[in-house]
Structure formats: C-alpha cells, structure tokens
Batch of 2 targets.
Target 1
Amino acid sequence: MKHRTFIWFILPSLAAMVLFIALPIFSVFTQSLFVKHDKVLIEAEVCGPFGCKTEVSVDVAATAEIQKEKPLGKFNGFNTYTNRNHLAVKEVRSAWSEASSVAQFFGALLNLPFYKALLFTITYTFCVTPFVIVLGLFIAIAVNSLPPLFKGPTIFMSLLPMIVTPLVGALILFWMTDAEGIIGSTLQRIFNDNELSLKASKTLTWIMLMVYGIWASLPFSFIVFYAGLQTVPEDTLEAAMIDGANRWERIRYVVIPYIMPLVVFITLILLMDNFRVFEPIIGFSAQANATSLSWIIYNDLRGGEIQYFGSASATSMLTIIGVGLLLVPVLIRTWRDFNAKSV
Amino acid sequence: MFQFKSMVASAAILIGSATISYAGCGISGGNVSILANDFPALHAVVSAAEACAGDGVTISKNHTKEHNSLQVPGLTANPAEYSVVVLANSSLVPLMGEGLVRPLDDLVAKHGGSLQKHQLVTIDGKIMAIAFMANAQHLFYRSDILAKVGVEAPTTYEEVLAAAKAIKSAGLMDHPFAFNTAPGWNLGEEFINMYMGTGADFFKPGTAEVSINNEHGIATLNMMKALTEYSNPDFLTFNSDATQALWEAGDLALANFWGTRAGPIMDAEGSTEEVTSNTVVASAPFLGDGPRPSSTLWWDGFSIASNVSDADAEASFIAMMNGISREMVMANNDLTVWLIDGYKPSATSAGVTATAANGAAPYPMLPFMGTLHGAAGAELSEFLQGSESAEQALADIEAAYNAAAKEKGFLD
C-alpha cells in the first residue's frame, strides 16, 4: 500500500483515537497537576434545627475571587503523585530508613493505600491471567472433541458467565458466600466453625475474588481458542498422527504452536482487563480486605460527598503507566515476531 | 447522605395517600426542577410540591440515590440543571463552598410565613437552606431478648456490651449486635458518631488541622472494636440494607441504625410478628460518662440554586413551601421525624427524639468534615480486623486527611 493511501485509510480511526483517547488522557494528566486554590477560611455563626454554633466556614466571595484568576486551580506539579495517598515518596523513604527488617518495611509500605491496592491488583492480575488462559484452552479442546450434537448447548452454557452482567454475577456469588448463604453455611458446617467467614478473612476474600475473576473471564479465552481450533489444519494433525504422536503430543507440538498468536492476544487483553479489576470488589463489598487501583479512583470520585478530581486523575495516570509496563514484554515479543516474519 | 437513606424501596408506606390537592399555589409562572434523594419521606415532599404545576408552571423532578454526585455538576451549569436541591447537613457545606446555592432571606420574608424559626439554616446570618426533617442513628433493641436475660435497656455502650455478653453467654445469639461498619461512608459515620460521644472536637479550634490522635480517639476506637466482637464476622460488609435484613431475620438483639429505618423495620413486611412487636427504639447510647450521646443529628432540607433566574427561584421556593406544608405532614406523619408544624411524634420516631433530647450534637457543618469522614471510613478496617494498633489507625486517618485536605485547599 502506498503511504499516501495508507494515511487516508487510517485517518478516520486515527482522528477518532486522538479525539476520544489521546485528548481525554491529556486532559486527565493536566488535571492531575492541579489542586484547589487555598480556601479563605473565616469563622461564622452556623444555625440550624439543633441550635447555633460558631464554626469555621469558607469565605465564598474571597475564594471565588482567587478562582476567577486561575480557573484550573493551584499548580501543584507532581506533588499529588508523590503525596501520602499515592506514591507516598516521603513515607516510603522514612519507612525504609526506620525499618529494622525487610518484613517491617513491607508492613509499613502496605499500610499505605496505594501500595496496598497495587499488591492486590498485581496478585490478582498474575493469578487470574494464567489460569484463564490454560483453563480456557483446555475447555476449548475438550468442547472441540465433543460429538456435534452436544457442542451447541455446551458452548452456550460455557458462555453464561460472560453473558451475566459482572456486577450481578458478583452479587449472586456474594450472597451465596454469606455466612447465611448456601456456600458460606455449608463451609461452616464442614469445618464445624461458626466464626468462619469468607468475607472476614483477607486470604479467603482474595481467593474468592480471584475465583470469581477466573469464572467471569474464562468464556472469553475459551471462545477465542475455540474459534482458533477450527482453523488448525487437519492435514498437519493427520501427519502428526501418522508419525505416531499421541493426543497430548499433537496438542503440544501442533495445536499450541499454531494458536500461539491467539495466546499472545488473549494475554494482552487479560492483562489489561485484570489490572483494572473493579466490579468484584464492589459486588463482594470487599474493600476492607482488597482494594485495587480502579477502586481508589472510584472511591475518590464516588466514595463520599466530596470529589477529588486531582487525586483520581493522578491514580488514573499511574494505572495507565502500570498497564503500559505490564504490556511491554508482550509487545516486544509481538514486534520481534512481526519483524522476523517480514524479513 | 446516601447508604443509610437507601431505604429499601419496598417500604410498605405508599405515598399514594398524599393526593391532597394544593390548588392555588399562587405562582405566576416559571420552571421548577427538583433534585432529591430517593426515599418515601422525600417522595411525599416532592409530590406535594409537584401539585403546583400547571398555569405556566412546569415542575420536573429527579429522585436518585446518586443525587450527591449530580449536585455539583447540576448546579454549576448556567442556567443550572436543577433549581431546587434537597440536601442534608453534610452536603450543604460543599455546595456553599462553591457558591452554588443562593441566600433565601428575601424569599423567606416574602413567602415563608409558615416556617418555624428552627427550620431556617443560617450561615453567617444568611438563610441558606430550609430544613424539614431530622434523622439520627440510635439504639434499637429487642425487648423480649433483653427480658429473657434480665437486662435493662442499655443507656451507655458499656451497658450495650454487657447486654450483648449476657445474650451470648445465655446461648440466645452468637452475634447479638450490629452497626453499619462497611468501610467507606458508613464506617466513617460510625467513627464520627462514637467520637462525638466523648465531647471532644475533631479539629483544633478555628483551623482545619485535625486532632483526633488522642485519648478520645483511642477510647472511640476501642469501643468500636469491642462492639464488633459481638458482631457477625462479616461486619466489614455491613451497610444499612444488610443490617436491616439481619434485624428483620431475627438475628440481632441490639443495634445502632438510622432513625429512618425504624418505620420499615416495624412495619409488617419482611419480618415476623415476634421481631416487629418486640423492637424498641431508644436514644443513642453514651460512651462511658461522656457528655452527650454517641450520635450526630442530621437534618434534610432544601436549597435553591444560584444559577437560575430570580423568577424561577421564587417559583421553586413557593412550590417547595407547598411541598413541606402542614397538610403534607398530616398526610404522611409516620414517614420520618418532620421538623414542620403539625407533626405528631410516633413510636418509630421516639429514637431520634430521645437522642436529640439527650443532647446529641448536630453533624459538624465544617467545610472539611467530609474529608475527615472519608479518611476515617477508609483507614479503619485494619484496626477493626486486629492487624493494627489504635494509635496507628488514628495516625493513618490524620495522614490521609492531611493529603486530601491539601488537595482541597484547606491546608497549605
């Protein structure tokens, strides 16, 4: 394709990407560099149904005056990124110099909201992703070898977790694992322990969230692999059979190499998705034991009556950087394969 | 003010009874648009206000639990998307801080003849909101269970612990107590309520500098921890809906709930006769020999947007005055604790009234209170799970508050 033709060809999608992806990210980045102007505080008498009291309040007129000059707010540089509620540079440094052991340092580090969330986010991403890929592949191979009569219904059933709205799926499981729910009370009976609660223990909550994560994204990898399996050439498989390869060897040496590009594709998508884990935390009301970067953003914007746009923007930028770092190895690999092919 | 107000929509009290005609509101014309939370008492108010529509007056409404997140964007637009916002103590201050609601002095002078003085919320001498109902968290107890273990109704949290212990050792219930301890807004509110009972201030007087890392803070946290030990191990997922369900299932004997839950709990729906007939509401308990009950008083009221024309503002005010009329209260007396003339206290409102009578303080109307509330709600779960000391938890709250308050321009 000529360069000129190529440019015209991708121009519409390029324009859409700039308009709907690049510009918003740039605006979020700009916002993350600013905080609110210093409020002018005065003491004023506040009266209501329950009496009067002299309280500190904001001098609205004086504050609006400052706001008018610089509507974006006070320039704060990267201070929002480094403050205690984000990267906590100062706190991490002092934890490092004060800690007498590595364990103590990590204890102090994980007491900080950002690192606590990061640990769960990374653990979730690296536990759920491989499980979803391996299980998805095996389910796809198993379904592929079913007699045609059963294939349709099985595929439909396997896709159910993806059809159910994530929040609804999470809520159903949440109620089942309640101490009064079917799974929760059965576990209590099995272990004969009335205090056993899947929601109270950190470890069990993490396992529950990850099991949910695997359950919810399994259909995606399954259906992609299943589609891929339909294109594996029959003659190569037959040749392998003639060479005496058993079923496992055919999968290992023919099927898997053939669908490797799909594995890379699914890994990319899953890493991005899982790093942004959010719904299960809300659905399972798990924020006491597990928080993620996306949850922090949500909490800044919807957690209470006050919205922290600068803070949420900074966490958003850090999440984008996190996704970028995760994808680098996969992208390098794809790039190398691409170059190798084009030579 | 959201979770606790998320009154289960199934609340049996239908507002169909509010079909009294309010003919002749005397509005010459204009657009009224109301943003409000979504629960029966507010439906009654807004429906009554809606009766003024017609003759050149259009009235639209939006009842949503997401009202808090719509307030600032909805009122910032010029002209504002909503001419009336129904709000509470905590949400008025942030809106005022942005200059989004207007002083109501002239409108009150002209059309507010039926208002009582205590309904006027004034800040620095200017009327900024009209309050019409009150709410507070207070004690709920099961008289039959307490009678079985021979314990009097508790008036302090120490007595609540003793009663819970007696119920547990009598083998009646494993987890007799509950309060709304889900991290976030609910847990923050429980912390503020309990700390209120110590009588201490949250901030250094006259400043935005937080000071809770002291003996009052530690006493507050230790009591919260002691109470959670009589709570179901799932307590860190408890919001008002979850705890109400536990109460209605007969799994609780003592609890600290919002006053607006009394109606739905005591009605015939969702529970057994045994539970509903033995449920009693009482004042929020004291913390030790503290000076006031461990609770905060809340009001719900309305304000008028700054960014609407004066004519629309006047129409909105008149419509809302019809919404909070004496007739509306008489038709909907038991929905909540009305602050309006004509209200008759009922069995479900006794808890809020008793809490107020015992001298509970209102939720502080400080511009940075919401920031502290959020920090407390986010930083307490480790302590309650036993993996952190009270001092560390308080230090974490202060650190989280300081970072957030700097972003909001309250601290340098």
Note: The longest strand of chain A covers residues 41-48.
Target 2
Amino acid sequence: MLNLTEPIIIEAENDTVEVFLSGDIDHKNAAGLRNDIDYAVERHKPKVLNLNFAKVEFMDSSGIGLIMGRYKKLSALGGRLVLTETSGTIKKVMKIAGIEKLAEII
Amino acid sequence: MKNKNEMKLIFPSNPENERLARIAVSAFISELGPTIAEIAEIKTAVSEAVTNCIVHAYREKPGMITLTVKATSSKVHIRITDRGCGIDDVKRAMEPLYTSRPEEERAGLGFAVMESFTDRMTVKSAPKKGTTVTLIKNICC
C-alpha cells in the first residue's frame, strides 16, 4: 500500500530534540506523529523541542492540536517549544491559533 | 452568474478521505487559475470541514459525506454535507478554541480557519439530522 506520509526524522543532541516533520499533518496523521514525538520527549526529556516544518506540505488545525499538546507536555517537563522553517498557509494557520504565545517561531 | 463547471463527490467518513477531498477540490479549481496561496487556503478550509464531519458529526463511526463544488469564472462555491449528529449550538461551535473533544487534542479552530480562508462561510445544522457547511471563495484572476 502506498504510504503518503513520509516518516519523521528525530534527532537528539544535548538538551535538544529536533523533529523534522514532513508530508501532510491532518487529523489522520496527527495521532501517529504525536506518539513518535512523545516517545522521543519521554526518552530524552529535552529542555528544547524543535519542530521543523521545512518539508511539511500541508497542515490544518489538527496540526495546531498537535503543537498545543506538545507545548503542554514540554511545559510540564520544564522545557520549551520552538517551531522552525514555517511558511505560507501553515504560518497563517499558526497565526489564527495564536501559537506565537506558546512557542518561539523562527 | 452561469455555472462554469461543477462536481459532486460522495465518500465515507474515513480519515484517509480528508486528503482525497482536498486534493479533488484543488484539482477541480485549478482550471480557474487560482494562486498557490488561494489553492492552499481552499484545501485547508475543505480539510477542516471534512474533518469536522468525521470527528464530530459521525464521531468516528461510518457515515457518508457529500462534497459539491461549483466554479464560476471568479468564484468557487463548496458545500460539505453530513447526516450526522448535528450541532446543538452553532454559535458556540464557531467560537475559536471551543471544542467538544478536548481529550483528543482538537484545537477548536476548524470554523475559525474556514472563516479566515474563505470570503463567506455559512453553517446550517439540525440536531440528529446533520450539518451543511457552505464556503465561498473569490478567485482573483
């Protein structure tokens, strides 16, 4: 079966976990991404979780739910959330949600 | 204004059909010559509406979703209809950050995104009968 969602790449170094997201972030894919990211967060307990959107082709408000959930998880661990390489419509969706109040957007 | 083209798609409320719906609409409207930003905004609005049908109207149980798209030379009319549980209080459901499913990390922004990314949105709903969302987007060409 054709898998339309590319796997995410997760890198951990020192106190930072960087997640390279790709493909479509919608309701169908959000749960799988959440499990993968949370596994890495629980394993490394990072001070910074960096979500990289460079290869994300589509994201709706299911992605906002994913970001808000990771923000709560990181806050509980005393860490912070950083969102990088956001652009276009994905950035507009983040703006509607007021995500800049929860995470640093680079 | 005379209809230039139209399309009707009926599909089950499977999560994989969120992608099918937004890709079908983007392919359909491409003939109108929209900008990349307009296509991305319409895709996002359609994805929100279809996800609402799956998550809220049918509560992840099987049901059918009807998507109709009509294109004139400068406008796209999109209608998404379900026969699910309906919305008790449409005004409240449209409030940003309100969600009836917070335990599943729903952001409560579906209608806010649809409203922001289109030029007109209407929601008609009857409890236990279903909901119809109509989205109108002007194409600037």
Note: Chain B has a mean pLDDT of 92.
